[in-house]
Automatic annotation (TrEMBL):
Keywords: Repeat, WD repeat. The lineage of its organism: Eukaryota, Ichthyosporea, Ichthyophonida, Sphaeroforma. This is Uncharacterized protein. Belongs to the WD repeat WDR55 family. WD repeats lie at residues 11-52, 54-94.
Amino acid sequence: MPPVHAQIHKMSFHKESVRAMQFSSDGKHIFTASADKSMRLLDMETGTSMREITSAHTDAINVLCMVEDNLLVSGDDGGVIKIWDVRQAGVALTYDECEDFISDITYHQPTNSVLTTSGDGTLSIFNVKNPRKPFFVQRSDYMDEELLSVCVMKNGKKVVCGTQEGIISIFSWGQWGDCSDRFPGHPLSIDTILPLTEGICLTGSSDGLIR
């Protein structure tokens, strides 16, 4: 076995920057998405490309999220969200109501829900209980700033979003119209959020600090 710091593969399949990657549920493959609008399925053992969708989106792809075993969610610069059935390499749902880039996607397994944030200041929710027929549930009101990151906390009772203005906006589950709480504290944008426990999350800000 090579040392942990050794490079195992160098895979050059995309023509522009690779913006998102997600492991398959079994850890044997990796999905990649690029600014060149394409998506690929790569074999982790051999480093080879097993599948390619050259025009997966009409705009650069920003983010991917793996849902259980068979669904992959992608979001692009134009605000389009696509839910893919990886068994068929086809799109199960396309949602194009967002008016700006898709910034983050997360999956909440207990409710079979996919949540996405957008640069237009909205949070969108989808139900994926039936992988072959996912459907749009609701979109929030427009917030005053871009929503850049999202996670689910408090055992599914709260949805936490990071904003361009450094505000943490909190939604109560099922009450998607407007956020229920707002917490300042970041001087710059909150680009990523990671739940540590059900009541504690880590934030990564463009000021270079983790809080």
